[in-house]
Amino acid sequence: MSLESVEEDPGCMAAVEFVTSLSDDELATLDSISLPSGRAAYSAHTLDILTHLMLTTDDDLHEARKHAFNVPDDWRPAEPPVGEPVGNPAVDRVLKIVNRYLLACER
Q: Which InterPro entries does the record cross-reference, listed alphabetically (predicted)?
């Protein structure tokens, strides 16, 4: 993704406009956010890598992922277990119920 295509994308421009509208204090607060280790921190690091590649090369997301992480074209992340918590209490409760039901069906 080139810088020019970012400027043409309404979604990207909305994000740019939002960030540029923030005051110095708000930017400092945003910059001071420390993500805990785990999914959020890993995701932020991954997004930094992919964003850098897409802005500095002609790679789209698929190509950037291949180059950054040396994965084949048909790579898919492993499916998490159905009962694995996602961090949203309401969703976690439903996932737990669904997981119990599926396990009971397997028996």
A: Cas9_alpha-helical_lobe, RNaseH_sf
